[in-house]
């Protein structure tokens, strides 16, 4: 029963058994990850922007929406290109690298929790290294306090490139890298560790074929994001700063966020309700689209065999 509802994974296991050592590179995994993340990011960007304003200003949902409304529609999608590009690359790296690493760890399957955790953790590290610069530019663009000084991504890049080599890395493109690394690696490990078990368990209940992937992605994304939300807030605040002034250490940044939130966990989690909604929709859509593409590919392969 379980295999009938896991066509994509069944195909992967069978292919590995037939040709061990030949499946560490699966180009489809990269393509499916790119497409699913592109669509889900475009759909949920308005929610993301409201959440970002809450993280920066510690305001209620209504106030964040009012700010965006007051700025006008010409600024509403300001900053969409960096996340659209970065999330598409994220999906490409996250799903593709995870699939490749999983095949290396266990060439013929089956995959244990240990394998999924290790592959997810390492794919998150790759993702953090490759995509931190995109998130850095995105967070500056979405900060309304920077609109006059930095009206476009090009102006931000010019600022970063005016620094010396190490300045470009530590103060420019990789500002706030360590919390990004921790957040991405742990988040990917949690997501991939429990995505398939939840999806397979729901599939056994005889639900419509699209429900298990949607629910699995939503539950995983929501829980993971809530656990790591303080790191998300820390990254947003660290990466919104530009220039040589006011560049505190990681610990000083943690203290600053804690103090500006009145030393209350409730205020650290300001915007948590929208994070739940955004994570549920984003990861639910991403997982469902990815699963749909996998099954379509499997069906086409069966027809040609």
Question: Any chance you could write out the topology, listing elements then pairs?
Answer:
Layout: H1 7-18, H2 27-57, H3 61-71, H4 81-105, H5 113-142, H6 153-161, H7 165-173, H8 177-203, H9 211-239, H10 250-260, H11 265-268, H12 272-304
Helix pairs in contact: 2-3, 2-4, 2-12, 4-5, 5-8, 8-9, 9-10, 9-12
Description:
This protein has a single domain (26-298), classed as Mitochondrial carrier domain (Mitochondrial carrier fold, Alpha/alpha barrel), CATH 1.50.40.10. Helix content is 76%, strand content 0%. The protein has helices at 7-18, 27-57, 61-71, 81-105, 113-142, 153-161, 165-173, 177-203, 211-239, 250-260, 265-268, 272-304. Helix 2 (27-57) crosses helix 3 (61-71), helix 2 (27-57) packs antiparallel against helix 12 (272-304) and helix 4 (81-105) runs antiparallel to helix 5 (113-142). It is globular. It starts with 6 loop residues before the first helix and ends with a helix. Residues 1-23 have low confidence and may be disordered.
Features:
single chain, mainly alpha, 305 residues, membrane, globular, Mitochondrial carrier fold, MCP_transmembrane
The gist of it:
The chain crosses the membrane at residues 29-48, 176-194, 214-236. By secondary structure, the chain is an all-alpha fold.
């Amino acid at each position: 029963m379980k295999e009938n509802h896991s066509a994509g994974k069944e195909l992967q296991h069978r292919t590995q058994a037939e040709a061990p050592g030949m499946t560490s590179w699966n180009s489809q995994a990269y393509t499916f990850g790119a497409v699913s993340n592109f669509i889900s990011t475009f759909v949920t960007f308005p929610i993301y922007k409201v959440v970002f304003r809450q993280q920066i200003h510690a305001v209620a949902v209504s106030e964040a929406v009012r700010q965006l409304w007051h700025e006008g529609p010409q600024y509403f999608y300001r900053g969409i290109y960096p996340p659209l590009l970065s999330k598409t690359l994220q999906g490409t790296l996250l799903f593709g690298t995870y699939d490749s690493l999983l095949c290396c760890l266990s060439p013929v399957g089956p995959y244990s929790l240990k394998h999924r955790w290790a592959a997810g953790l390492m794919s998150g590290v790759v993702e953090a290294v490759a995509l931190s610069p995109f998130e850095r530019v995105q967070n500056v663009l979405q900060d309304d306090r920077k609109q006059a000084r930095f009206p476009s991504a090009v102006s931000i890049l010019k600022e970063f490139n005016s620094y010396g080599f190490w300045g470009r890395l530590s103060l420019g493109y990789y500002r706030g890298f360590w919390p990004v690394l921790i957040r991405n690696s742990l988040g990917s490990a949690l997501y991939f560790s429990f995505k398939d078990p939840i999806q397979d368990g729901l599939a056994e209940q005889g639900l419509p074929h699209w429900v298990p992937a949607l629910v699995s992605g939503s539950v995983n994304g929501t829980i993971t994001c809530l656990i790591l939300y303080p790191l998300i807030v820390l990254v947003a605040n660290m990466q919104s700063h530009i220039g040589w002034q006011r560049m505190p250490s990681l610990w000083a940044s943690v203290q600053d966020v804690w103090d500006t939130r009145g030393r209350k966990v409730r205020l650290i989690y300001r915007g948590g309700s929208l994070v739940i909604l955004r994570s549920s929709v984003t990861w639910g859509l991403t997982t469902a689209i990815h699963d749909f593409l996998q099954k379509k590919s499997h069906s086409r392969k069966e027809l040609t065999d």
